[in-house]
Design goal:
The protein has a domain at about 30-80. The longest helix has 14 residues, at about 65-75. The chain has a 3-stranded antiparallel β-sheet, with helices on one face. By secondary structure, the chain is of the alpha+beta class. It is globular, with a radius of gyration of 15 Å. The chain is built from 1 helix and 5 strands.
């Protein structure tokens, strides 16, 4: 099975400094402006400044399983509000 390429966006952090970069693949199409937290077996979709829907299976997931879980959690999450100044 051939894997879809992952494109990283944003500048690379300086050597030795942790930074944030975003990854994009075809599986993430249609998902924008959402923050998710992942820790061990737990994935949480954030709603504003607080946690939203969470799934904790107590063990790590494969990338495909994580993607399916995030899609399900996004479907259960509140829709994001309009950003101030956006039309």
């Amino acid at each position: 099975m051939r894997r879809a390429p992952v494109r990283l966006h944003g500048p690379a952090p300086p050597r030795g400094v942790a930074g944030r970069r975003s990854a994009h693949s075809a599986a993430s199409d249609g998902v924008t402006g959402r923050v998710c937290e992942a820790e061990a077996g737990r994935i949480t979709v954030m709603e504003g400044w607080g946690p939203g829907p969470t799934d904790d299976r107590g063990t790590r997931r494969s990338p495909a399983e994580a993607g399916e879980t995030v899609r399900r959690l996004l479907a259960d999450a509140e829709k994001p509000g309009q950003v101030y100044g956006a039309s």
